[in-house]
Structure formats: structure tokens, C-alpha cells
Write a structure and sequence with these properties.
With 159 residues, this protein is mostly helical. The chain contains five helices and two strands, in the order ααααββα.
Amino acid sequence: MNQPLVSTTDVRIGRCRIIVFLGLMILIGFGLNVLWEMGQMAAYVETAGQPWSETLALCTRAAAGDVVILLGIHAGAALAAADPFWSLRGKWNHYAIAMVLGIGTAALIEHAAVAEGRWTYSSQMPMVPYLAAGLWPLLQMVILPSLTFFMAVRLSSRR
């Protein structure tokens, strides 16, 4: 007999928790990405040497875009894991899927943005040779999504 992918218990318990989780994911993801974006500004020609007050608006917009990417990574990992509640289970292999999706997404975005002239790397940006992309944005989408998911799971499971 075939078992459903998601049990009725999962749906009943998970519905409220997933809403809390998604809200926390958006807030935590936004905060972490603003900090990361601000930290890497010296690695871009357009913002190198500018005070944080002049780059905050740009970094805030970038972080909002990063949250959209984060939601896409979460959805992609749910599809890959065939489990809409994957992040609530906290299995390492699911986080590994998110990391692979993150680096793939970041590599595509960075390559396209540099090719279109949307931004230029300064000498402060270490390059990843085979991907032709900067190291900091690649690490951002490898580290921050999984860290965000982990933190949101921990906080959403507190009572």
C-alpha cells in the first residue's frame, strides 16, 4: 500500500509551524543578508570606499532580493526532497541540497550580472576560477540559506 508523502498529522501540526517558520525565515534571512551585503561592499568597484550610510539603501534592496532567492531555494529543496516540511525536520542532507541550490543560483546570478555590467568586482573580491564569479556572493548563498533555515527552525520550535 502506498503511503502519502505528507501525513495528516504533518499537515495539522505543520500548518501553523510552517507559517511561523516562513515568517522567521524572511526576517532572519533579511537581517543576515543585509549584514553580509554591507560587509562585502569593498569588493565592488561601485561601492568601494563609500561610507555605510551611502550603501545601506543599496544593500537593503539587495537583501530583499536575497530573501526572494532564499524562498526559491527553500521551495527548490522542498521539491528535491519531495517534502514540503523538509526544513522543519532538520536533516543534514536537506541542508546539503539547499547549499547546492544556493551555489548554483549564486553562480548564475553573478555571472549574468557581471556580463551585463550591473556590477564590477574590485581587487578585494577573490575569484572562483571555474565559475567566473566572486567568492563572497557564492559563500553568501551557500552559508546564509542553511543558517537561516536552521535558526528559523530552532526559533519556530520554541514554545
